[in-house]
């Protein structure tokens, strides 16, 4: 009898999981990207690499922005960088702006020359700004390396991901936000 109960619990759990996963695949991507909050303004960023300084999120209105918090000594960050670079190359001419925000975990990661060497070593061509004092990190209430925040054309955070993985989901979110009209319909 106990074996039958366990079987039914497993079967129901499986149905719920697969049904929700299946429904997720068929959902409207817009429903999966809720409007979270306005993207914080840039604060505390120094020493821009691969770009002139970008002073404000307002300068990027009408663009989809991927904010990528990373540090070169973090293996998980290193694993995400080829994906971030690929998205930059693939979508930069369609309205995506990738901003790497280097927030150091250790003292040796605070040295600009070390960050410049890492950017070169990993072949990064998107803008990278230094956040040694964690001011933008705190503005986003971030706590993780790596952390990605997608901001829509109206300056609203619509997607977050922490750690490695979910590369297809992140790219699908990028594509969806790039296809949205600016300004986005309210609602």
Question: Quick summary of this structure?
Answer:
By secondary structure, the protein is an alpha/beta fold. It has helices spanning 2-26, 29-32, 75-91, 112-121, 135-139, 167-179, and strands spanning 37-38, 46-49, 64-70, 96-102, 128-130, 147-151, 156-162.
Provide a descriptive summary of the structure in words.
- By secondary structure, the chain is an alpha/beta fold.
- It folds into two domains: 1-29; 33-179, Glutaredoxin, CATH 3.40.30.
- It is 40% helix and 19% strand.
- It contains six helices and seven strands, in the order ααβββαβαβαββα.
- It has helices at 2-26, 29-32, 75-91, 112-121, 135-139, 167-179; strands spanning 37-38, 46-49, 64-70, 96-102, 128-130, 147-151, 156-162.
- A seven-stranded mixed β-sheet has the order 1-7-6-3-4-5-2, with helices on one face.
- Strand 6 and strand 7 form a beta hairpin.
- The model is unreliable at 6-28 (pLDDT under 50).
Topology:
Blueprint lengths: L1 H25 L2 H4 L4 E2 L7 E4 L14 E7 L4 H17 L4 E7 L9 H10 L6 E3 L4 H5 L7 E5 L4 E7 L4 H13 L8
Parallel strand pairs: 3-4, 4-5
Antiparallel strand pairs: 1-7, 2-5, 3-6, 6-7
């Amino acid at each position: 009898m106990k074996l039958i109960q366990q079987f039914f619990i497993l079967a129901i759990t499986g149905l719920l999981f697969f049904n929700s996963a299946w429904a997720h695949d068929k959902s409207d991507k817009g429903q999966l990207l809720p409007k979270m909050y306005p993207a914080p303004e840039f604060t505390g960023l120094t020493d821009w690499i691969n770009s002139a300084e970008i002073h404000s999120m307002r300068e990027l209105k009408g663009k989809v922005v991927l904010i990528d918090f990373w540090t070169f000594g973090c293996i998980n960050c290193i694993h995400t960088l080829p994906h971030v670079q690929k998205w930059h190359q693939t979508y930069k001419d369609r309205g995506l702006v990738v901003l790497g925000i280097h927030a150091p975990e250790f003292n040796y990661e605070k040295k600009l020359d070390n960050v410049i060497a890492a950017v070169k070593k990993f072949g990064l061509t998107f803008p990278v700004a230094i956040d040694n004092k964690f001011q933008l990190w705190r503005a986003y209430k971030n706590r993780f390396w790596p952390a990605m925040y997608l901001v829509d054309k109206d300056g609203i955070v619509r997607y977050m991901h922490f750690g490695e993985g979910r590369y297809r989901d992140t790219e699908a979110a990028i594509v969806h936000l790039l296809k949205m009209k600016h300004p986005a319909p309210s609602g």
